[in-house]
Amino acid sequence: MTGAAMLEKVVEAGFDVGHGLQRVPDGIEAEAVVTAEQVARLTAMGVRVLGADEGFEWSHVADGGLNTASARTAQATAPPANTATVRVVRADWFTTKGQGFLYVEARTTEGQQTTPIVGMQLENDSGRTTEFGFARTMSRFVDSGQYMFHRNLFKLDTRPHKIRVTSSTGGVATGLVSDWLENAPPPLTSARGYKSDFIDGYKTPQQLFARAEEIARQYPDIAEIVYLPHQTNGYQRKAQATIGGTGQSAVVVSSAAWGHEGGNDITVEFANQPGANLPLAVEVTGKAVRVLLATDAAGAPTSTAAEVSAALQTQSQGLIDRAHPYRTNTGTGVVVPTATPVALTDFLDQKRVGAPEGEVPRGPATIPVLRIGKHRDGRNPGVLIQAQDHAREWVPPTTTLETAERLVQNFKSDPETKRIVRNTDIFLILSNNPDGANYSFYNFASQRRNMTNHCPDANADPARRNSWGVDLNRNYRVGSGHDGYAGASTSCVSDTFQGPEKLSEPESKNVIWLVEKYSNIKFMMSVHSNGGQLFWQPGAYIADGRITTPRPPLGDEAFYWQSAARILSQVKAHRETVVTPQNVGGSSDVLYSSAGNVREDLYHTYGIYSFGWEVGGSIYNPATGNWQGGSFQPPWAGDPALVSGHAETMEYANGIMEMFRVAADWGNDKKKPTSTLVPGGGTYVRPVDVRFETSEPATIYYTTDGSRPTLESPRYQATEFREPGQVFRVTETTTFKWFSVDAAGNIERNYDPTKSDSRDNYRSATVTIKK
């Protein structure tokens, strides 16, 4: 078991491995802080554990074992040389910190073969008119038992013009090298007088929400607050205690009232009764609960943990809501009297060193949405930015607040900001998980989920308190774990717990409410940290067969890639941070399956272009020659060229600002797309390969049976995921009829595919095969 299946197994076992996830040739690599005992457990599960000073290194040969001898064996049993079994998916060149890198993806039709494993070798030239050379072996990637591709990132001194990929079975393909994020237009921050850098440190939910409301008061002509209707469960817990250790005599007690509303005042005492054959009884004096243990004929206590638990629930005059034996114990052990009364506590009173000053409000929270736009009446495309679904991710909220400050404070002075505010309707959820975020700031820094405890007795004792809650980004309806998709857990103490049902949590219900109330929302970005990925659909798959949720049409996929290049170019402009192509695309392809994520629901249910963003990616350090990874809570200050919360906030705010420009351009796009069939209609003396090309990202609907094309006609598809459009092998005379629709809904030639009596101004071409 490797890859996503092993990741899910490890998470189910209670390990926190959500940090620094990345695909490696033989699975998924993650960072975790573990004890020696936990290392032993992981090893026993079949996990390869690397030491703190032992990072992953790419194998010198594909799959870590395809040596020269086995490569020769594979070649000897392969199909004839140069069989067209290899395709170059992409070859991208980029620079960062003065260094050049080549990223290559290639795919072989025989990649699923395992005996022998098919290897791939890459060569590149050193520019136009130079020869191929510099042979390297590429790494093969398999996920959930399915071959994905071969891919590698190589450091090079010179930009190549072409590459050549050769498989161990003889297939050969060449491809041109493209520029990735090179020669980007200047970001908004380069404008004279443009103001930025407003955020001075990490912000608690209270600070974020207070500033959002202040912005709405300061700039009422362009900003307002929308309050979400579903209150959170709150930064609050029932007061608890585990009395009597962890054996069969232990009892777990929970108050009926929240800790801050009286639960913390309760004490529970287990006491001997002098005398023989006395029944179990419970006395309540104010908030003091005294359990008088039953005795036998000799006057010795006989009450078991199960009996005491039942008595507390029924005889504590409503003070105790829940009492039960410890975890999976049956409670057969005789309860031991307590030396003194045991005080119940909600464990929320301690303050972690370095946490912000101020009292954390208890009770349910109402989440404000900061809405910014000159015209907030539905006429403009809406953009929803949702930050901090996961509590421990502290950079996404500061990044989102930074964009809000830039919008309102540059509106009057900067023409491009004014264009954004006049042409978009922006909704900012600065923290979608305020309860969990407060718990992360004040109690447990690694908290990921909200604070709602759905656990049954087996996991409801206070020692489990740091493991309760729902992963909000696994609680949605499309591609859900409840429907068998991978990447969400049914365990209430797992970091990817999906909740008892779809949309069980108020935080996820609020997002659905928002996009249904404001139907002009056409773009969405869920901002996370810290992997350095930008992704979209598909986001989940059923593990058996790796069956993904529906992939976007080729036109939408192309629009996502085009938008990503714009967004990431502006990130790079700040300090040359490059989110590499291997970390861009469908999230289930570049990362892992995340069942029930918000992006999937909003795209497939409402047609919203929905991005997921893991900010805080790796930074290349030329001094060491290594890529330095980030963290959920990097130091706020520090070397601006390396990892810091401040630098990440500034650079990724650049990217969000560019997303606003993407939406503004989309809303003003009235230009019709154009498309062609290549090489086109005509007469050919032998079978010919044809494909469609478009002037911009657009979806093509076509027919080959003579009928007029409609929105129900076949869509032009990708050859394979992360690849360009399919190629049709035409062996007999065929007439193609088609039209294209761009991302903004503009239809080529104003053709109306819904009206059978409309002008037939669709495109048409006949490919005649002369036999």
Automatic annotation (TrEMBL):
Keywords: Hydrolase, Metalloprotease, Protease, Zinc
One Gene Ontology biological process: proteolysis
Domain Peptidase M14: 324-656
CC per GO annotation: extracellular space
GO molecular function: metallocarboxypeptidase activity; zinc ion binding
Basic and acidic residues biased stretches: 750-762
Pfam family, one: Peptidase_M14
Claim: Lipid biosynthesis is one of the keywords in the record: no
Cofactor dependency: Zn(2+)
Active site location: 614
Residue ranges of coiled coil: none
Ranges for region Disordered: 750-771
Family statement drawn from the similarity comment of this UniProt entry: Belongs to the peptidase M14 family.
Protein name: Peptidase M14 domain-containing protein
Protein's organism: Micromonospora rosaria
